[in-house]
Amino acid sequence: MAEIPPDPNENPTEKNIPKNKQGSKIIYRYVISFSYLHLAALYGLYLCLTSVKWPTIGFGLLMYHITIIGITAGAHRLWSHRSYKAKFPLQVILIVLNSMAFQNTTLTWARDHRVHHKCSDTNGDPNNANGGFSLSHMGWLMTRKSDEVIKQGKSMDMSDLYNNPVSRFQRKYALPVIGTLCFIHPTFIPMYFWGETLNNAWHMNILRYVTVLHVTCCINSVAHKWGYEPYDKNILPSQNILLSTFALGEGFHNYHHVFPWDYQAAEFGNKKLSLTTLFIDFFAKIGW
To answer: What is the 3-state secondary structure of 9-59?
Structure first.
């Protein structure tokens, strides 16, 4: 099972700031964790094709969509870019969905993403696309941050999230909250409500988790390599319509890097391809 990585930007010392380039220091316990998750996901795919019940597959698809919303509408557009305002009830919903996705805490996710925009595809970028596809995709999650990335992370003003009670709660109780919402509840529900086996329920949930993680990581790898650049041809982020479909509207990446404050993350919203924008608009209409 993946674990929440230590935050090298908090109380740094000479011991935990290695003199290295981004991606050069491998964290082997994370490699082992990610290896297990991917093997379990492949087994989950096999079970999906052979023995998993149809309601479990439907539940997995539902979980896929709502957990991506926790990343796109929550960690990304709200807490990283502050591109729209959300009242307390919506923030609670988003922190639950974000915890179900388990991509670290919102504070850590937002800090890394703000650094990514400030230092996009340079040595200060934690997922620098110029460092290679594997590093920008998922390799950066299994390696120590470079000195420059740590320096840039320390320079980020994160006071908004340190002062946010919802973000503080998730950060304080990260392991029990994220562990329960991401792994325990999604495994228990199929077993309790329609008699799915523990083996099937667990591995289907891991398949969902790993799929969402890859789709999210594709934004900083695939969308920085393949696509077109109608807004700024001098940067790597590109428009990738196919990726936007899977990422619920996050594939209009050239536009997003030029106009990161737009809550729609795409010109004119492109709502047909952006369930994230439709989600935000719905809660805006009901005043949340």
So the answer is: CCCCCCCCCCCCCCCCCECHHHHHHHHHHHHHHHHHHHHHHHCCCHHHHHH
